[in-house]
Structures are given as structure tokens and as C-alpha cells.
Amino acid sequence: MSAFTALLVRDMRLAIRVGGGALMGALFFLIVVTMMPFAIGPDLALLARIGPAILWLGALLASLLALDRLFATDYEDGSLDLLMMGPLPLELSVATKAIAHWLTTGLPLVVIAPLLGLMLNVELKATGWLALTLFAGTPALTFIGVIGAALAVALRRGGLLLAVLVLPLTVPVLIFGVAAANAAIVGPTPFGPPFTILCALSLASLVLGPIAAAAALRHGLE
Amino acid sequence: MPVIDFANPTRFLTIVNRVLPWLIAATVVLFAVGLFRAVNAPDDYQQGATVKIMFLHVPAAWLGMFGWGLMSIAALGTLVWRHPLADVAGKAAAPIGAAFTFICLTTGSLWGRPTWGTYWVWDARLTSMLVLLLLYLGVLALYWTAEEPGRGARAAAILSLVGAVNLPIIKFSVDWWNTLHQPASVFRMGGSKIDPALLTPLLIMTLAFTLLFMTLHLAVMRNEILRRRVRSMRLMQAQELAEAT
Amino acid sequence: MNLGPHADFIVAAYAVTVFVVAALVAWVVLDYWAQRRILGDLEERGVTRRSQRKG
Hints:
The complex is a heterotrimer. By secondary structure, chain A is mainly alpha-helical. Chain A is 85% helix and 0% strand. In chain A, helix 3 (44-77) packs antiparallel against helix 8 (171-185). Chain A is elongated and about 55 Å long. In chain B, helix 2 (54-81) packs across helix 4 (124-145) and helix 2 (54-81) crosses helix 6. The radius of gyration of chain B is 21 Å and the shape is globular. Chain B is an all-alpha fold. In chain C, 78% of the residues lie in helices and 0% in strands. The radius of gyration of chain C is 22 Å and the shape is rod-shaped.
């Protein structure tokens, strides 16, 4: 088993077993989306119109909260030091942890999004498109978030600092994610351009995120 | 004078002490001239006298962005070239850049109320500036929460570079988002072409504000160097006390 | 000087700018005096910097 697979499997097992990461993110997503109508009102027409926005914001917040523990637990028990000295280049280790994080926290969001969409009166076919935009965009949220997680752990500070650092950087993902979802549901703007830009953002952050995060860990923990 | 001469903090302080009075004088003179020209500038045919707010808003916007550019170059100095004063330069630029971004947003809002009717408009440029302010606040949070100045400086340097890469993308996406939701009437701030009678005061004020930035920047760098001296002296004092007992 | 019907906004914009710049300047100046004073205190008490000792 290569080092990459070993780390990936280890992280995924931890996320699922501890019960923290994996399902908690999806649960938070459900709760936040449920709270929105209490604030906005049960007007179905309004909810349908802003449904994609609510789902994207919920996914953003859920991803953010789960990122807190990405490096923190490893830092506390010393495995982060081992990771930094290990056989994998740090950038690759970080990327592996981020992939594991997305598989256990991001993907469940994508899976339950259609159900939540129905609660917001988004029509069934449209929820599929919505889930697709989340599938393309949540990796970007994870890989941008990983930068904030690395900076926060280097300074031994927690969740709110992470959110403050990461949220402005995710503005483009949010803009294009919601735009693509709206385009698929309402039209008339085409779905293609925002969706491809969303994919581009995910791919770019897949590369740049771990590089920046690894630099943050190296410089912050030396 | 090569850059390496600035590497020694003590040498740097001597240079700053000599240069600062001249910079302050030049800044004051330029502001005097600029404000005189601004006050006497003609009214815009569309916006009336409110165009005078432009003489504050545009320089502030430029300096907000300039501040982040300066932080990014300083970040390269810290992380790549390991210049000893690079992290001081970056840390000094952050609060000044943030202040000018804030000025840009408030003057923009006050300009918007009489011309557009509301205090805040999700206009592409103002919104991008707002995101820039949020990024500045993030960097300031990093400096603020770090226990050791060195560690905080390196973390902030990384965030500066990440922000520098991200800012064009954010600007592009906000522009795109704004055209998607643009109401029927498009009002462009400052008009499409600036009349020469308004351009000269604008340039003088921009120069004056830039000199102000540079003056403040050197002064804050000086304070930061002194602050680090105090810290290392206190640490040494504590160490001596510990050794004596 | 006639600032037109929206004079209040123009004045407010200039006032905000002056206030923020003044606050910045005040922070820089006060901080400088504070650091100089502390350094003076420390030097009086005989605490020296490493580089001064070597010289």
C-alpha cells in the first residue's frame, strides 16, 4: 500500500469512526437549511427563488466548520510532525488529507442536497443540477479552506480565525456556484460558462491550496 | 543605495530618522496644493459638486490596492529572499492599507447616496473593495493573534501572497456577478472620461496621499523595529533573572 | 464656496477622511513615544542588547 493510499484511508477512517467529521457536517447542513425558512418565511415562491443560494451558503458554512479539525487533532497528538518528516512531500500529504476531507465531508453534502432542495421547493429535476454544481464546487471550498486551516493551526488558533481568513477567498466559488445552479433552474443565462469556471476554480485550488497550506505549516511550525 | 543597506535595522532607523521630516514636509505641501485645487475645481455636469468626493475616493482606492501589492512584495522578501526587514515592511503596510480601503468604502458610500440614492450599492468596484477590506482584516487578525512576531509575520506573508493571487479572480468574479444582476440604468462612478480640469487636482491629491502612505509606512516600520527591540530586551532581562537565581 | 444641494455628503466624506488619517497619525506618534519611553526605562535599568554588548 503506497504512502498516499495509507494516509488517505487513515484519514477517512478517522473521520468516519470518531463520528465527528463525516456525518456531523451533513447534519449541520440539514439544520442550517432548516433554519433558513424560519428567518425568511414559508413563502414557497421566494424559497424556490433563493433555494440555490441557501444551499450553497449552507454547504459553505458546513465545509468551513469541518475544516477546523483537519490539522488540529494531528497537531495535538504529534502526528503532524511525523507527517512533515514522512516519505510523502508535505504538499502531497496535505492534498491527501484534503481529498479525504472532501470525500467524508463534502460528498455527503452533495448527496443530501437534493433532499434539502425539495424542502425549499426547488423542483426535483433542478435539484440534480444543483447537486452537480455542489459536486464541482465543494472541492474548491475544501482546498481553499485547507490554507486557512494550516494558518490557524500554525498560530494555534481555532475556528473563527479560520473562517475570517477563508471566507473572502471563497467569494468566486460562491458566485459561480450559485450562478450555475440558477442558470440550470431558471435560465435564461447559459449553464456552461459559470459551471466551467467553477470546475476551473476547483482544479486550480487543488494544486495551489496544498502548496500554500504546506508553506504555512512549514513556516509556521518551524 | 542598494537594498542590502536597509537590511540592518539600526542603519535603517538612522536613515528613517533623517528622511522622515522631509517626507512629512513634502506631504503637507502637496496636500495644501491639492486641497486648494480640489476646492476650486469646477462642478461636474452630471454630479455637481459631489464630484469633489472623487478626489478622496480614487486615491484611497488606489492606495488600498497598493498596500496589498506592497505586502505581497514584502511577503516574497520574507519567504523567498529572507530579507531581514521584509516582514516589518509587510506588517507596517497592513493597517495603513486597511485604513485607506475603509476610507474608499465610506467615501464611496457617501458619494453613492446623493448620486445613486442609496448608501450602499453592490457595484462591482465597491464590492471588490469590500472583499479586499475583509482580506486585510484577516491579515491583521493573523498579526494580532500570533504570539511570536516572526511566526505571525510568516503566516501573514503566506496569506498576502494567497490574497494577491486571489484578488484578480475575486475582481473578475464580482464584475461578472454584477453584470448578471445589473439594473437597467448603469451609472459609472466619475463618468467615463475625466475632464482635464478635474484630472489635475485628482493627480495632485493622489500624489499627496501616496506620499502620506509612504511617510506613515516608514514611521510604522520604525515603531515595529523599536517594539521588537523592547521585546528582545525584556526576554533577555527575564533570562538573566532566571540564570541569577 | 457653494457645494450645491448635497453639501452635507461632501463635508461628511472629507470629515471621515480627516478623522481616519488623524487617527492613524495619532496611533503612530503615540506608539513611537511609548516605545521610546520603554526603551529608555530598560536602558536605564542596565538591560542591554546583545549587539551592544559585543561591541
